[in-house]
Amino acid sequence: MILHIEISDNELRKRVRQQAISFGGNLKLKIYGRLNCNSGKRMKKENRIFFRSVKEAEQKGFRPCGHCMIIEYKKWKNGLI
Questions:
Q1: Count: domains in the chain
Q2: Predicted pLDDT of residue 72
Q3: H-type alpha helices, the chain
Q4: From residue 5, how far is each of 1, 61, 76, 80 by CA, in Å?
Q5: CATH code at position 37
Q6: Which of 13, 35, 71, 73 lies at a C-alpha separation of 20 to 30 Å from 64?
């Protein structure tokens, strides 16, 4: 788990290319999603957090995004995750 405010833009790009970061999330709302999600792109930098995997995000108590991860979100909503 990496806070956006604690990492430089160059280091962030490097980690994305290396696949050390695969998902982003909103720290206040406890939602995670894909890095290219329009909802995630609009959030404030101080609320943004990054994860290596879905498993890591879910272990930290985050739920899937209803926009970019609709299938996973529906499973979460129905209590299947």
A1: 1
A2: 94
A3: 9-17, 38-42, 54-59, 70-77
A4: 12, 20, 29, 33
A5: 3.40.10
A6: 13
List Cβ neighbours of 76 (8 Å cut-off, separation of 6 or more).
63, 64
Handedness of CA 4, 43, 38, 81 (dihedral sign): positive
CB 73 within 8 A of CB 63: yes
Coarse DSSP helix, strand, coil percentages of the chain, rounded to the nearest 5 percent: 40, 20, 40
Residue 41 belongs to what domain range?
2-77
Structure tokens at 50: 């990054």
pLDDT 10s digits, 18-34: 999 999 999 999 999 99
CA distance 75 to 68: 14
pLDDT value at 16 more than 90: yes
CA angle 63–39–57, rounded 5-degree value: 25
